[in-house]
Predict the structure.
Amino acid sequence: QVQLVESGGGSVQAGGSLRLSCTASGFTANDYKMGWYRQSPGNERELVAEIFSGGHTNVADSVKDRFTISIDTAKISIYLQMNNLTPEDSAMYYCQYYTTGERGQGTQVIVSS
């Protein structure tokens, strides 16, 4: 069974940085398609970044100059480095394993102005 656990969220001031982690189990790191999504109250879920086997990545235009997605296949963990955060980045951030659709419980990011 696939399990995903996110961590690294918190409260920061605008301009600050956070690094989110998503530790996974239940699948091989040789074949993965995973992504980070976020959702804030009243808004639809939004793709932030995704990563595929071979290291290919896709980052939303709205954050591509500030966010980076990476993976440690040995730890089966993906990371989201978020720099120069703005209040608009405040949301619950989830990671998702595309093959089965599982996602974690999320980690909250709050950015104050």
Remarks:
- Strands lie at 3-7, 10-13, 18-25, 33-39, 46-52, 57-59, 67-72, 77-82, 91-97, 107-112.
- The chain has no helices and ten strands.
- The mean pLDDT is 93.
